[in-house]
Description:
The chain contains nine helices and seven strands. By secondary structure, it is of the alpha/beta class. The mean pLDDT is 92. This is SIS domain-containing protein.
Amino acid sequence: MGENKLAGQFFDAAIGLLERVRDEEAANIAAAGAAIADTVAAGGRLFAFGAGHSSLAAQDVVYRAGGLALMNLLAVPGVVGVDVMPATLGSALERVDGLASAVLDSSPARAGDVLIIISLSGRNALPVEMAMNARALGLKVIGVTSVAYATETRSRHASGTYLKDHCDIVLDSKIAIGDAELTAEGIEAPFAPASTVVTSALMQATIAAAAGDLAERGIEPPMLRSGNVDGGHEWNGRVMTEYADRIFYRR
Length: 251
C-alpha cells in the first residue's frame, strides 16, 4: 500500500502544479502563443531548445501528431539527452562558454524567428548564452524555466544572470529547487520530479494558444496528423510540402 500512497501523492503534486501554471501563467502563455502565431503568419520559423531532461519538452513539440509542423528542434551536440556517453558529459557541456553561439551561428535561425529555450534552473552558461545571442541576432526568445532557481542559486554564466533575464516572454514552471516533489521515511533523497510533466504541459498549452490565435486570424494552422490514422500520411505530406522552406527536421 505504501507504493500506492506515494504514487497518489505524486499525482496530487503534479496536478497542483498544473493548476498553478494554468491559472498564474495564463497571460504569459497567451503572449507566447501570440508571438508564435505572429511568426507563422509573417513567414518566420520556429525553434525549440532544451538541455538534458529539459530537452524532453522541446522534443515533445517537434514532428508529432497534433503538433505544429513548423516547430524545429535546435540541437546542441551532446546536450539533447542521456544518449551521450557518459551521461554526465551532457551536464558538463551545459557549462561550456561559446557552445551556444557556435550552434546558433551554424543554424538556420535568423532575425524574426522564434526560439523557445527550456531550462529548469536557467543558471547554466548554455541557456543563458543561447538567449543572449539569439536576441542579439533578432530572434524573439520565449524562456520556460523555474524562476525560483534565480532566487536561491548562483548563476554559472559569467554575467551572473539567468535565462529569465534574457527573454521576451517567460513561462514559469513553478518547480521547486531540486525538482523532487516527495520525501518519505527510508528514502534518503527527495524524489519524484514533476518538471517534465509541467514543462511539457506549458509547451502544449502554448502551441494550442498559437493554433487558436492563427485560426482567429483566418489562417489555417499547419498542424500534423497521426500517421497511424487513415489519411494521416497524405495530410502530413501536403503540409510538409507547403511549408518545406520552414521545416528543417526533414533535411
